[in-house]
Amino acid sequence: MFAVLPSARKVLSRLFVLFSLLWLAACDDAMLPSAGGGTGQRIDPGKPVPVALLVPHGSANANEAALARDLENAAKLAVADLDGVRIDLRVYGTAGNPAKARQAALNAVADGARIILGPLHAESANAVAIAMAPKNVNVLAFSNNPTIAGGNLFVLGHTFDNTANRMMSYARKQGKSRVLVVSSDNLAGEVGQEAIARAAAANGISLAGRVRYGFSQDGVVAAVPKITQTARQANADMLFLTSNTAGALPLFAQMLPEAGLSPEVIQYVGLTRWDQPAQTLSLPGIQGGWFAVPDTGRMASFNNRFQGAYGSSPHAIAGLAYDGIAAIGALARSGRGDALSRGSLTQSSGFQGTGGAFRLLPNGSNQRALAVATVQGGRMVIVDPAPRGFGGAGF
């Protein structure tokens, strides 16, 4: 998305593009009330499980249209991988529109669907869940925003709380004790910094301060002196950044070391992945930093199989559709009529997905096994592997 250039000033014109689709898919109208809901539809263990997949086919947005295709293909790949379980997968287009998503869900239930996988955007997911609650149908949405979750609505996307907890737990084991949080003054920044604050408290790490910056080029430049000053005055030993590689991160990674706050002085930590695109890994402030990634082996396996089946690499969140089908299939394999109930969906043992172990939580959010990565010589290196299950190290 950008080229690595010798001076921070030269990257200004290439920074601050709109958030990646990953966050946009999660945060549209994120403060809508979550749907209440029932226990879930029963299934006939002897017949194929009717599953409705809601994706933004028909969207005028080219990125959404491409993502819709990848989500559908990932779901079909998962169906083909199931052993001893038959899934009747039916795909419905939402055009990325809440009203159309709601109608698609109603059509799906009329067609016999017992569970909804999707949709993409938070507002659409909320509309679908509200419509499905009286019909006792659970919804597994592709959002990563837990503020919409609850009742019959579960979110499959990677949440800030999950990442922040993983990073804080690791940081504590490495002897870190005081964190300075740097976040943008928009919804993503607000949600991110609150997740970090909760994770710090849960892991016995003191909050040394918070610095917010305007989500603009001038906002980042103006924040650098304040970040540097606050870190020194508060004696912070960790700098936790909510920014991503499509936003402020590249600029911070160059300007903060130039201002004297280098990785040798303070530990940099990220709330988002720092290895995509690969050019990011050469930036000064990234070296030695920590960030979380899914199980790299399992993710590489999924990517290779998707590439082999469809001739292209999957979108970064296409694996969520695979995960949803994998969970539904694992539950259906039990042969129980209540396999799609809330109690079954939230089983503590969880499931195995494209990025490793994951489980749905009673509050509608999720927990995913993550590895901790660092950057050495411009290359990503795993320093703490993702746990293979729940209850062990890393959770």
Please tell me about this protein's structure.
The protein has 395 residues and is an alpha/beta fold. It contains 11 helices and 15 strands. It has helices at residues 21-27, 62-81, 98-110, 122-132, 160-173, 187-202, 217-233, 249-258, 296-310, 319-332, 342-345, and strands spanning 49-55, 87-93, 115-117, 138-141, 153-155, 178-184, 206-213, 238-241, 267-270, 290-293, 351-353, 356-360, 366-368, 371-376, 379-384. A hairpin with a 2-residue loop joins strand 11 and strand 12 (356-360).
Concise account of the structure shown:
The protein has helices at 21-27, 62-81, 98-110, 122-132, 160-173, 187-202, 217-233, 249-258, 296-310, 319-332, 342-345, and strands at 49-55, 87-93, 115-117, 138-141, 153-155, 178-184, 206-213, 238-241, 267-270, 290-293, 351-353, 356-360, 366-368, 371-376, 379-384. With 395 residues, it is an alpha/beta fold.
Keywords:
4-stranded parallel β-sheet, about 400 residues, alpha/beta, 11 helices, 5-stranded parallel β-sheet, elongated
Distinct helical segment count: 11
Q: What order do the strands of the largest sheet run in, or round the barrel if closed? A: 2-1-3-4-5
Structural class: alpha/beta
Distance between the termini: 33 Å
The overall pLDDT average reads 90
Count of DSSP strands: 15
What fraction, in percent, of the residue positions are helical? 25-40%
The SSE string, one letter per element, is: HEHEHEHEEHEHEHEHEEHHHEEEEE
The rounded Rg comes to 21 Å
Low-confidence stretches: 1-37
The coarse silhouette is elongated
The largest β sheet comes out as: 5 strands, parallel
